[in-house]
Amino acid sequence: xxxxxxxxxxxxxxxxxxxxxxxxxxAEGAAVAVADRDTDGARRVVERIRGAGGTATxxxxxxxxxxxxxxxxxxxxxxxxxxxVLVNNAGVRTIKGFLEHTEEDWNRMxxxxxxxxxxxxxxVLPSMLETGKGKIINLASIASFTGRPARxxxxxxxxxxxxxxxxxxxxxxxxxxxxxxIAPGLIASPFNASFAExxxxxxxxxxxxxxxxxxxPEDIAGAAVFLASDDSDFVNGAEIKIDGGWLAAKTRxxxxxx
Length: 258
Ligand SMILES: NC(=O)c1ccc[n+]([C@@H]2O[C@H](COP(=O)([O-])OP(=O)(O)OC[C@H]3O[C@@H](n4cnc5c(N)ncnc54)[C@H](O)[C@@H]3O)[C@@H](O)[C@H]2O)c1
Description:
The protein is of the alpha/beta class. The protein has one domain: 3-Layer(aba) Sandwich (Rossmann fold), CATH 3.40.50.720. It is 43% helix and 15% strand. It contains 8 helices and 7 strands, in the order E-H-E-H-E-H-E-H-E-H-E-H-H-H-E. Helix 2 links the parallel strand 2 and strand 3. The longest helix has 29 residues, at 103-131. It is globular and about 55 Å long. The model has no long low-confidence stretch (mean pLDDT 97). Residues 11-12, 14-18, 36-38, 41, 61-64, 89-92, 112, 139, 141, 184, 186-187, 189-192 line the site of nicotinamide-adenine-dinucleotide.
């Protein structure tokens, strides 16, 4: 098992990509703290992990609020004594044209998607510094690399998250703490259910990838295990795109062979 004995904390672990990461971590022998503002979701995922023989606890958090983040970290440390791996996965997306984006929309996009990872990382780092080792994994996006329509706040936050990933990796140099990002593409999680299930966008958007399909939350889990494990000890300040080749291929309609 690749994560035996490690204590992992996954924000937004109550469904979607976060759930798939939590389940994979549990299966690889880690103790998993499933943190979410949706406590029912977090508890459901904990039951899934325990049902498969793993170790997990549910923690309530709103990653955009520092008091809530501090309480989450205290609860995990009380239960498990240390935190070896933090996955900053909780995220939200507003879809509105730039002219319609309100200041409140903008602030929420930055608060959850960018300030959240900043606050969670700050709160977890003292434990990692004490044990002399740590892995932080930030869930970026294809929107970290390219503009996307009607997603100004989201694109800005996710682009900033890659900058934060690199800057933190630099500031943690020499302390054995690695900070990396995973950039998912089109993943059919609840976040994207309306697009994945719609007749006009479901099959058509899947065909834009080189694989001709949408990704599933489980498609992200392998990279999340790798970046949490000792196998990635020479990987730092990096990002792994998991988008079925969408960013690599700027193709026109009908050019792909599927
Ligand atoms: N699904 C995709 O296609 C896709 C693509 C690129 C990037 N991402 C990123 O991956 C991450 C996970 O996405 P997903 O598709 O699983 O989303 P999702 O909406 O299905 O799940 C997100 C989870 O985060 C939790 N959450 C939201 N705000 C929170 C907060 N303030 N505090 C604590 N928990 C909070 C939700 O309750 C939910 O359980 C996000 O950061 C998202 O931006 C997703």
